[in-house]
């Protein structure tokens, strides 16, 4: 059973200037007292062709928490336009991803499609040769999040699988690791 359940994420604004800050309110439940930190990471996908253009907009850890419902506001700077490789990547479909880890294992990920565009009809019809970033708007599709929940080792006991590269894949050796401290 999951010890942490993300129950709601609400963006302050789903349409804003491209380089304006991103703000979201996150609500989650802690099912029982936690022994370890929770790690949060907000990522902007700069290009669908390579993760080397991904931008970490915010990353932080929360100390171990007591059981109960928690809520906080995550605020981050907007993406850095200079780190996006091309105009096509800027104006193509992109995403913002929130990843959450416990005991260094990702257990929750939610992605939102992002569409960057000019809102002024004259700029849409007559695309300027140079990007006018101060007139580009970021539109986050908050109505269709892509949520992934992963089963992890909440208790800190893990079964690891070892395969001897000299043997065929039919031979396995299991080892139980307890308490990583």
From TrEMBL:
It is found in: Nucleus. Its main location: nucleus. Keywords: Chaperone, Nucleus, Transcription, Transcription regulation. GO terms for cellular component: chromatin; nucleus. Coiled coil: none annotated. One of its GO terms (biological process) is DNA replication-dependent chromatin assembly. InterPro entries: ASF1-like (IPR006818), ASF1-like_sf (IPR036747). It comes from the Eukaryota. GO terms for molecular function: histone binding. Gene3D superfamilies: Histone chaperone ASF1-like (2.60.40.1490). Belongs to the ASF1 family. This is Anti-silencing factor. It comes from Paramecium tetraurelia.
């Amino acid at each position: 059973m999951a010890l942490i359940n993300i129950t709601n994420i609400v963006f302050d604004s789903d349409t804003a200037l491209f380089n304006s800050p991103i703000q979201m309110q996150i609500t989650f439940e802690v099912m029982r007292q936690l022994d370890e930190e929770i790690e949060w990471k907000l990522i902007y996908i700069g290009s669908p062709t390579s993760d080397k253009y991904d931008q970490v907009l915010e990353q932080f850890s929360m100390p171990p928490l007591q059981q109960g419902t928690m809520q906080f506001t995550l605020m981050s700077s907007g993406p850095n336009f200079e780190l996006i490789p091309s105009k096509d990547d800027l104006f193509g479909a992109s995403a913002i991803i929130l990843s959450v880890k416990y005991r260094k294992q990702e257990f929750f990920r939610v992605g939102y499609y992002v569409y960057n565009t000019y809102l002024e009809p004259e700029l849409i019809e007559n695309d300027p040769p140079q990007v006018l970033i101060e007139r580009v708007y970021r539109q986050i599709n908050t109505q269709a999040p892509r949520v992934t929940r992963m089963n992890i080792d909440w208790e800190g006991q893990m079964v690891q699988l070892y395969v001897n590269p000299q043997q065929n894949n039919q031979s396995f050796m299991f080892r139980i690791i307890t308490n990583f401290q």
